[in-house]
């Protein structure tokens, strides 16, 4: 890649090419993912979304946003403090996501119903808490949808004691097509710049939501969807929709 390619236009060109590839190659996987989401909504379940680090951006893309499904819940390591009574200092540990038992604690704090779907998001798909969450969800009978980079996960060893990675556990895997390390534009002399996974991940999330909503509509069911709270009546209408899932979805300041 030339020095000239490390530019705004270079990133736009390269990322759009990957996005187009994702749109075309992920069609069947998106359909399978959408069926999991639609089935969860039909069963009065909640989509439980979990990720760490920058994958939390995609959790927010799915859970509790305008134009998104109402029965969605954001799970986070911060839940240990917000809902579990842990000292906030616990979040200062940069290795917390590698600690055994963290995912099980987050799961217990969410108290999910059996019909809830777990969406676990991780570019590498190997962090201990990510794999532990997927395993814990499967052990409790939940379906698991993964959003990950297969190129990255295949390039690194498993870190969890089970020897498994997120993609090995999930019922359906959405591949964000990000390269190992996530950065897209190669730098002269080595290294790279500009992460890709948020762009492709957001595309896959919204394609899945759109397809799930379409399947519900085709079955004569109206999908429960948020309206922006910043339009007249939006906030009040959303509160009415949320009543059905009272105590099962969390909506905190962010």
Automatic annotation (TrEMBL):
GO terms for biological process: carbohydrate derivative metabolic process. InterPro entries: RpiR-like_SIS, SIS_dom, SIS_dom_sf, SIS_GmhA/DiaA_subfam. Residues 37-223 form the SIS domain. Coiled coil: none annotated. GO terms for molecular function: carbohydrate derivative binding. NCBIfam families: PRK02947.1. This is SIS domain-containing protein. It comes from Streptomyces tuirus.
């Amino acid at each position: 890649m030339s020095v000239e390619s490390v530019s705004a236009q270079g990133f736009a060109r390269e990322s759009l090419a990957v996005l187009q590839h994702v749109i075309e190659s992920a069609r069947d996987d998106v359909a399978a993912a959408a069926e999991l989401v639609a089935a969860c909504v039909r069963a009065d379940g909640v989509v439980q979304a979990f990720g760490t680090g920058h994958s939390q951006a995609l959790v927010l893309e799915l859970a509790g946003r305008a134009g998104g499904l109402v029965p969605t819940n954001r799970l986070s390591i911060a839940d240990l403090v917000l809902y579990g009574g842990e000292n906030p200092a616990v979040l200062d540990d940069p290795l917390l996501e590698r600690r055994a038992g963290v995912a099980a604690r987050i799961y217990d704090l969410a108290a999910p119903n059996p019909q809830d779907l777990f969406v676990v998001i991780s570019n590498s798909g190997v962090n201990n808490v990510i794999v532990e969450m997927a395993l814990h969800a499967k052990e409790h009978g939940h379906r698991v949808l993964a959003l990950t980079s297969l190129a990255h996960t295949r390039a690194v060893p498993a870190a969890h004691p089970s020897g498994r990675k997120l993609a090995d556990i999930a019922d359906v895997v959405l591949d964000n097509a990000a390269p190992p390390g996530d950065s897209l534009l190669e730098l002269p002399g080595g290294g790279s710049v500009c992460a890709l996974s948020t762009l492709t991940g957001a595309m896959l999330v919204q394609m899945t939501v759109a397809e799930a909503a379409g399947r519900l509509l085709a079955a004569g069911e109206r999908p429960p969807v948020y309206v922006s709270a910043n339009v007249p009546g939006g906030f009040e209408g959303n509160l009415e929709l949320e009543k059905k899932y009272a105590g099962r979805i969390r909506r905190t300041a962010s």
